[in-house]
Amino acid sequence: MSVPVPMRDVAGEAPGYPTSVELRAEVERLLRTRGVTLEAIADVVCAVQAPYFPDLTPAECLLSVGTVLDKREVQHAVLTGVALDTLAERGLLDEPLLSIVRSDDSLYGLDEVLALAVTNIYGSIGLTNFGYLDKEKVGIIGRLNRSKGGQVHTFLDDLVAAVAAAAAARIAHQRRP
Ligand code: MG
Known about the structure:
Blueprint: H1 20-33, H2 38-49, H3 58-69, H4 72-89, H5 97-102, H6 110-119, H7 123-136, H8 140-146, H9 156-175
Helix pairs in contact: 1-4, 2-3, 2-9, 3-9, 4-6, 6-9, 7-9, 8-9
Bound molecules: magnesium ion.
């Protein structure tokens, strides 16, 4: 996978390492190429939190998704998971991992483990939301899970669920009076 992130030295960053702003832009681009918009993730956030906060707006959900994607732990998780999906799609992983990732083997489970790197940031509400989304496959998560035709979304569906779960947990924490 080619990652067109300019490498530059920035104060406080490791030499040659992209800034979190550059990584955020790359993550957004990467998600879009895999069929996921931030708006689609925000729709999931709204669906999860609307019963608790009837005045919740799509703009607030979108802002929360963006804030989650600003976190380096989240950016790293998305870059890693999407890279593995893409490598599997192109047949570039070695066996037996290739077949395991390609078939989204239900006993593999590391797609969920990687997603925990995202949900952990917002504590137990994030984890509970993730469990719910993983089971109910709301919105874009269900579409990714069902999509066939050579596309591999073994990691992506869990990462998107985790970002939505974290963004929803963030709203829950922020709105507590
Ligand atoms: Mg999965």
